[in-house]
Predict the 3D structure of the following.
Amino acid sequence: MPTIANRVAGFSTTIFTEINELALQYGALNLGQGRPDFDGPPDVIQALIDGLRNPTVNQYPPGAGALSLRKAISDHTARFYGMDVDPQKGVLVTAGATEAVFSSILGIVDRGDEVILIEPYFDSYLPNLAFIGATPVYVPLHPPNWTFDPDELRRAFTPKTRAILLNTPQNPTGRVFSRDELTLIADLCKEHDVIVISDEVYEHLVFDQAQHIPIASLPGMFERTLTVSSLGKTFSVTGWKIGWLYGHPSLVEGASRAHQFVTFSANHPAQIAAAYALSLPGTYYEEFQSMYTVKRDLLMKALTNAGLKARQPEGTYFIMADFSDIFDGDDIEFARYLTTEIGVACIPPTFFYSHEHAHMASTQARFAFCKSDEMLQQVGERLGKLTR
Ligand SMILES: Cc1ncc(COP(=O)(O)O)c(C=O)c1O
């Protein structure tokens, strides 16, 4: 008796699971998965506990999300980006950004449509397209600066293109797309009548002079963009799995119809706490960025001292580093070696590329720095063994 449907038969255990298991077995400091090893802000946690004391909050919320959270998302979008989002029909609360991307695809893309994926891409995007029978069209970011070739991007647009999946600030490269890059993408989308699904879960994790620009805020783009974000990254509560999307009501409609039959609604008490969190004053967001700047600098120093060519990220909590000066193998061999022999776990990024372009990242490793400063210092000590 076949026990696995053809639809999922090709999905193997993810690289995150393999590296997590290896890290545990070898006692490695785990910079693999982007999972903070510290807690969210105490008042945000308290808001969740307070929410639980309200009996109505322990029952189903409206499918689109608690109105207080939809209003907080609309206010947050106006406060940071000056965009006017309708909290009634222009916002949908989901079980994490992961569901927001999937419900967007289900609600917008048909079987046989082409969807442009910028590589390296977040690992759920491709299986999501496979579920509905859409065709991915790949546009790689080229090392060492992780920029796309404008001609490669232009060539990816065809009469069959329905959508492009964008992620900025970008996991795993740490790129924050510039206004010029976003304008080129926007112009092509307008020319070819294409919808953008823009995953912006790291919207508040930008460093130095970098500025996060939602593509929806560019002229003529609001009506053709679904913007996705998540509570987990900005408030260090990845386990709550509260995400959302917002956009023009005509686009949110399709995603909402799909969401009714994917999860129907997301965790109600966490939505109440999310509304509180998003309303925190600007100082919260500034301190959050300062905390992460220290962590980024600690890891940059550790990697550089060990002889890796690490690219300083403008955003996210990931660093991509080229190890070819110190190791003669591919990225999977390096990740296994580093985890088992040196005691530091990282992720091999070829898993975020199509087979055709995987070679572009074969001398790179992705390190997450959403970890305590003490752990990042210890990483520096362990990586010292590499050069010796
Ligand atoms: C680019 C990107 N999108 C989406 C997610 C998932 O977000 P959530 O946990 O809210 O589903 C992640 C988490 O690592 C991510 O890096």
User: Anything to note?
Assistant: The pocket of pyridoxal-5'-phosphate is lined by residues 34, 96-98, 122, 167, 171, 199, 201, 230, 232, 238, 241, 243 (CB under 6 Å). Residues 139 and 152 are 6 Å apart (CA to CA).
